[in-house]
Amino acid sequence: MTFFLIVTLNGLTLAALYFLAASGFTLIFGLMRTVNMAHGALLLLGGYVGFEVAKTTGIWPLAILGGGLAAALVGAIIQFGILGRFQGDELRQTLASIALSIIMADLMLWFWGGITYQVAMPDALAGGFRLPLLGVGYATIRLVLIAFAIVVGIALWLVIAKTRLGAIIRAGVDDREMLRALGFDVAKIFVVVFALGGLLAGMAGVVAASALSISPGTDLQFLLSSLVVVIVGGMGSVGGAALGALLIGLAEQYGLAYAPTYGVVFTFAIMVLVLAVRPQGLLGRSEA
Amino acid sequence: MPVSYDHKAANALEIQGVGRRFGGFWAVKDVSLTVRPGERRAVLGPNGAGKTTLFNVLTGDLVTSAGTIRMDGADVTQMPMHKRIKGGLRRTYQHAHLFNGLTVRDSLFLSVCGVAGGWQRFMPLRLNDGAVAKAETLAQLSGLSAELDREVANLSHGQRRQLEIGMALAENPKMLLLDEPAAGLSPSERPRLAELLLSLPKHITIILIEHDMDIALKTSDSVSVLHNGQLLAEGTPENIMSNEAVHKVYMGGAHGH
Amino acid sequence: MRTAFYLLPLAMAPLFANDFWLVQILGRALSLGVIALSLTFLAAYLGVVSFAQTTMAGVAGYTVAYFGPNTVDVGYELPFYVILPLAMIMATLSGALIGLIARRSQGIYAIMITLAIAVAFFYFTRQNYSVFNGWTGFSGLRAPDIAGINLRAPVPFYLLCLGVAALSLVLVNGFIKSPLGLTIQAVRDEPKRVLAIGIPTTPVIVAAYAFAGFIAGSGGILNIWLQERISSFSVGLGPIVDILVIAVIGGLKHPIGAFIGAIAFVLLDTFAVDFIDRERFNTLIGLVLLAIIMGAPDGLHGLAKSWLSRSAKRPAKIKT
């Protein structure tokens, strides 16, 4: 029973990480129909920058912020300089973002090398935490991670539901032409949203580098998890990303614990099942 | 009206309480209609009356939210679209949905294969393939003989409408649903369309959405008027033209055109 | 015929090219080109960019590895005349299955779903030892002797690659003119209308993917005979992206683009080391890809075509 609960907790941790990674991806997709294949590279960049900030300043929250801002800046540059030129040509955007992710991954490998990095955490988070009821220790950072994901989720929901930017995003998801007709500078909004997506990815990268570790390959790992999460949850829906992350995170950990050889099959089976029953994803809206 | 038809007993189309909902909005609500074999029925109504949605439900482009649809006496409410097509139903679209990357010949050829079978063949075609000959006949019928080898993307608007009809006529349809076939045609092209419609074999049941009153009334022998998704009136063209309620919602709304 | 025009110098290559060029440049480019051709076919005629072509090629490769001679203790050896058809059938079936899963997805959705399938297969091969032998995979794979010809020797192997490449191009060009091929293009243009002429779309899409699986499978077999090994890395993200890069660089609009892209890719891969640090090859290929996407969306084939038509027009134009 304890084992099961620990596995569940591990699943929730992983789900939190997947949600953080996928939320920015789905946000960008939701508004501009851009599949940003460089999302994983932004996440890894955030992780590396976060590591550097933590090393220099020793302040963990500053590392999160620094990693997030670095990825936000690069994201904005990508949208402004390259992807924004082909707005509406989704296939070309997707291919261009693949090219960018190849370049970014290689340059990061050049700069940071092939070794594994872990962001140093404040002492308060570094240790374990004795869980009430269960009576077992659990890494504090993982619990913080779950809390962080919930906070980000709520903040994102508030931004989308309550703010002007959120209203624009919601309107844009329904009808991008309408935004243009209403006189909004759509290109600028897209850059802002891309930066927001980058911010989320970068912060997720620092968190991943703290709770686990990062190295070349982490970018692809999180790009793929984000893909699966949004396919399952529904593309463009933040709630869907949360649901998808929960399903995939738990499935992966249960798979790892109870059927280690075929863990990946569970994830895959969930995706195929969802596609068969609801091609638009669990909380996604039909394109037709 | 003398009609010779295989299924004398059955109506060509019989729908009962048919509705289609989008979210909380009923685009078509509680519509019941009966169309006899060989009848020419015009469906009129202002924009947004639910005419095209009704067509989409009849063909299976959209699933029905309520009611039953019977064609030739058989319940087709749950039948997938391609099977209804095999059963003799054809349609054209208001905004032409055509195979832009194919030639006129190939488009008509596939329309024949879709109903008669044979689209699954993966060996290159023999020159004397029967379906190709039928495609060429269809091109003649729809006035596209000179354009057989042109890519559909390069056709003029009028030619695209002709191709829509040509594809719908493949393999002896029993019932044709024509969604504004005259839309976007020049005044000189319109009489030719009316002529084409009148020349179609008399056993084909035709249901026609058309804003061009001239074409609609000339080619049909009965009229149904939709308003806000519901059936407002039904009758002969003369009846409808003198109907007060119809005048109010439809003819009144026609000022804007 | 135009095909013969291109084929003749290639068929005579063994007369003047050395073994390295025959096998490592031309043979490799042709076998990668065949796999990329399956992607270009889907992109040009079904309108779907599939990331799962390496997976279909890998299914054929793994079948040959499992049932053929290898130096790991996994598998069950069968004669080659059973293995080869079996591998092609398996690749075709894998294509059909992937098509069935992705049948309702178009455009960017299809990209995401085929990518997810491909990577799931990669992880599966890495974790499964009974059939795929985990991340070590199979080594010591050898092309057979057929009718007394040793297919491992450079010239026969090169000619085999050339033959398979030419045959698959002919096959694609014939298939797209068949009724089913036309129906596939109709689904690309207007899936709704395909239903409206009485044709269900699912079997059409599945057939297109299955055909792509067949083509990819033949390239996959050539590829493992060339590499003499297959492992999870052969179906991992690296090769998946390579095939995409090849198809995009060459041009997704026309089947020949796959081979143009493959030649360009292999030349770059082989000789870039003379210009830049070997380690930075990915940056180079990324920049080339980005330049092509931004400047020439129809790839090298599109560029060549527009240059040819421009230079053909030039004499008629008089500068004032």
From TrEMBL, chain A:
Q: Which GO terms describe its molecular function?
A: transmembrane transporter activity
Task: Give membrane topology per the record.
Answer: Multi-pass membrane protein
Family statement drawn from the similarity comment of this UniProt entry: Belongs to the binding-protein-dependent transport system permease family. LivHM subfamily.
Tagged with keyword Cell membrane: yes
Q: Does the keyword Iron-sulfur apply?
A: no
Provide the species name: Parasedimentitalea huanghaiensis
Q: Its GO biological process terms?
A: amino acid transport
Segments spanning the bilayer are 6-28, 59-83, 95-115, 135-160, 186-214, 220-248, 255-277
Name of the protein this chain belongs to: Branched-chain amino acid ABC transporter permease
Which compartments is it annotated to reside in? Cell membrane
- Which top-level group of life is the source organism from? Bacteria
**Which UniProt keywords are present, listed alphabetically?**
Amino-acid transport, Cell membrane, Membrane, Transmembrane, Transmembrane helix, Transport
Automatic annotation (TrEMBL), chain B:
> Where in this chain does the entry annotate a coiled-coil region?
none
Write the signal peptide boundaries: none
For this entry, list what GO says about its biological process. Answer: D-alanine transmembrane transport; L-alanine transport; L-isoleucine import across plasma membrane; L-valine import across plasma membrane
What protein is this chain from? ATP-binding cassette domain-containing protein
Q: What SUPFAM superfamilies is this protein classified in?
A: P-loop containing nucleoside triphosphate hydrolases
Keyword field: ATP-binding, Nucleotide-binding, Transport
PANTHER family documented for this protein: AMINO ACID ABC TRANSPORTER ATP-BINDING PROTEIN (PTHR45772:SF7), CONSERVED COMPONENT OF ABC TRANSPORTER FOR NATURAL AMINO ACIDS-RELATED (PTHR45772)
Supply the InterPro entries for this chain. Answer: AAA+_ATPase, ABC_AA/LPS_Transport, ABC_transporter-like_ATP-bd, BCA_ABC_TP_C, P-loop_NTPase
The terms describing its cellular component in GO are: plasma membrane
One GO MF term on file is:
L-isoleucine transmembrane transporter activity
Q: Which residue numbers delimit the ABC transporter domain?
A: 13-253
| Magnesium found in the keyword field | no
The record's CDD domains line, in alphabetical order, gives: ABC_Mj1267_LivG_branched (cd03219)
Its source organism is: Parasedimentitalea huanghaiensis
TrEMBL record, chain C:
Tell me one GO molecular function of this protein: branched-chain amino acid transmembrane transporter activity
Protein name as catalogued: Branched-chain amino acid ABC transporter permease
By its UniProt entry, which InterPro entries does this protein fall under?
ABC_transp_permease (IPR001851), LivM-like (IPR043428)
Chief localization: membrane
Instruction: Tell me which GO cellular component terms the UniProt record holds.
Output: plasma membrane
According to its UniProt record, where is this protein located? Answer: Cell membrane
How does the UniProt record describe the way this protein sits in the membrane?
A: Multi-pass membrane protein
